[in-house]
Amino acid sequence: MFRILHDTRFDFIKWWRQAAILTIAFITLGLGSLALTGGLNLSIEFTGGTLVQVRFAQPPDAAELRATVGNAEITQFGDPTEYTLRIQGAEAIAEQASAAEGVAKQVEAALRAKYGDRFTIVRTEAVGPKVGAELARGAIIAMFLASLITLAYLAFRFEWRFGLAAVLSTAHDVLVTMAFIKLMDIEVSLTVVAAILTLLGYSGNDTIIIFDRVRENLKKSRKEPLYDTLNRSINETLPRSVLTHATTLAATLALLVFAGEVLRPFAWVMTFGIFVATFSSIYVASPILLYIERKFPRKDAAGRGPHVSASSARAESQVDDAPSRPPRSKTTAGR
Amino acid sequence: MTNLKYRLLLIVGLVVASVWALWPRTIIERVKRDGVFVYDTVKRVPLKKGLDLQGGMYLALEVDESRGAVVDKSDALDRALKVVRTRIDEFGVSEPVVQKVGDSRIIVELPGIDDPERAEQVVQKSAFLQFMITDESNALERALPRLDQIAKDAGGPAAAISGDTARSTALGLQKLFTPDSASKSSDSTKSDTAVTPSTGGTISSLLQRGEMPGEYYIAENNVPRVEYYLSLPQVRAAYPPGKTLKWGADTISLGGNVYRTLYVLDAREILNGEWIKDANPNNTPIDGTVVEFQLSNEGGRRFRTETAKHIQDYMAIVLDDRVMGRPPVIQSAIGTRGQITLGRRDLQQAQDLALVLRAGALPVPLKIAEVRSIGASLGQDSINRGTTAMIIAISVVVLIMVVYYRFSGVLAVGALVLFVLYTLAVLAGFNAVLTLPGLAGLVLAVGMAVDANVLIFERIREELARGKTVRTAIDEGFHHALSAIVDTSVTTILTAAVLYQYGTGPVRGFAVTLIAGIGASLFAAVFITRTFYLAWLSRTRGAQALSI
Q: What pTM does this model have?
């Protein structure tokens, strides 16, 4: 049998403070830059505007191209012969209110005058301001609804403490991913929103797997403090986490490297999100669960889950200091 | 044993069903042969590719209310939908989609179209045809003094007109991209107007009598100014009663100068395009490109009666508010046949005009709210890249599973193969559309699909480590892993469902593949792998060691 990380006894939760500092710093950095520079790099799907992807016969001179199409934002897209031209100015968008395709035609005319037949337009997207606003609203509703549904399901499937911890850690993932998108200046298109929503599901998964094990371990060994149960559960599910992430990462990395420019933002977000999901199910969901347990200790009289009253008082007293002062010695003592 | 038999039977049955669902079949399809669309039978795998993979065009149309509000938009859109659908059906695209979305939008999808501009024309052209008689009574001359006065009171059009001039110059880009150029162009117009009005009336100085009654020539560079005056409501109110003014569609050149024609017409049309039964393009030696049309019997009767009243008058054929060609003189009563002269335009345009005339006029003007067009070559690129990514992802996943779990890994890979087959079959079965994000979803689903297997295998290992027998360990492994697997599948499916509800085309494709993928992976891991184990156990008659 070929095993990795078998029967490990790492004290993961010990590091919760460092992890918290790291993740809060990252989120602050991301959201701070969001506040300073004003918003995400939204695609024309949301803002309205025009995108023209052009394939030239020979690599064009970027400066010359820029001069030809005025204020269009010019980006090389994969090959040196391929460029995307984006026009998102307020004036251009206002013009598109009456006819979305107008600006694209002007761009083509300008290119035609300069380059003649030495280019082909391989993709055009022109979105009027009204459609853009609708798509943006749809995306926000989708994010909100997906979070709500995930929350409801987790609350239904797990006892509320677990549910709340899982939801908070999922929310954390979305925030961190947003910060990542901002810091990497990834263009937010509908596909990227799809990636974020997929992450929502995926990050929920990871937490579920660990919590599922916690739930089972709580049933089995009722004397053990929750701090140790959590650590044990994380350790027990560690081979699974590593392996699953390896396979999912193989998929997203394949997309990142081979699937081309259009899917690249999607692949970036997914790749990053998989790391974050793993991180958060260990360092965010678990400490939060500990904190919740400390604040709202379970009472068997209330009939919440199959936990024994004798242990709950003990567990509480030990858990009590866990998030604030991780008891290093207890981890091994628990076994 | 019987249990195992049924399990195997179910798996094989599903494989057969999947293969059948994916088998290349003969489909009657419109295909392009030598530039003409014909119905033909094609043999292909019944998986629909989205516009982003096969290339094509997506249009979202809305009612254009810039020239007057539309009362019942939803109803108007329903009628417009019929017209657009008829036009698109005749336009010749394989498997076009024309549908109403919500109350305010029509969506048109044209796969494989290679001339987006032409498609826009065909969809958007109002194609409102009118037959009108030119004015013989010099009505405009008599009204001109008043119009001049009104126009003069209205003041110089410089500020208001600058937008129009800028737009009508060949490259409006300048104005769009550099904000200061707009003011520049308005300056130039101002200086123009400062010079001209001294010579006679504000409007009348810009007009020149044409060759036939009711016809006027306007120098090309004066056109925006006249357009501006004619758009003023007070000017419109002072039009000669019962008359209307329409621009000619073409320019004419006289003595080196280029002119546009403006016609004064009786406001009452003698007939409109409603009565057209058939229309065909033609090339005639005298008139150049024409569209010959035929009216219905009832239309012909009306036309005959009306034209009989106007012998020796000139009849303007007005298409979408533009007079087509020079109005011909009516020699004698005209019956059911007639033609529209297109002059220098090519046959393609005549074909398109004939097409829209046959389909009928749009009940309301439509504007394009969104357009996406993707070249076929780009689509093919995307397919190639997506496939590469998929093959690599699957290879790496297979490698990891087999190296790490050995024999059990091989079983999981077997289940993975069936998973891919089932997923594709489900997509084909539901007639789902495969898009580029959909391909990404499929690749992602492959990565996630093994998750369930990993969970189960890890569990079995644990049970084995506790000293359980192989059979019990397998049973326990599946049993304990189940709740986590179901939970993870359900959360992913729920988010994907939300995505489907709120996403558009490509993203919907992603949601669909993800849902199909997760469903199939659930089945593959829980049922198929289990069955493989059962089969293996029954063959080895209760093995003592499991390679996992």
A: 0.75
